[in-house]
Amino acid sequence: MAYFRALDENATLRHHFRHADEEGGLWYIEAVPDRGELIVVKQAELTSAGRLHRYSWEHLEDEHGGLTDQAIDPEEDLLEAIPDEEFQRVWTR
Fold it and tell me: Which pLDDT does position 1 carry in this prediction?
């Protein structure tokens, strides 16, 4: 938890992505660079049923899922870059 908190609180550059899953849900991701990798610090899942699940250092996991602990590669993971405003609209919903 301390690692993700430090990354989130000290980040000067943030990247935002969206990904559609096989069940029709949308994943929204905020990632920051660390040692040459992109590390997810916030992650929100908007399910096909309209439920929102949010994960960050403040809420790492629950019965629905959790914050990924793997670095991401936007091209390999088929992530679409989105503006900060789109991510914030979902995150603060």
Answer: 83
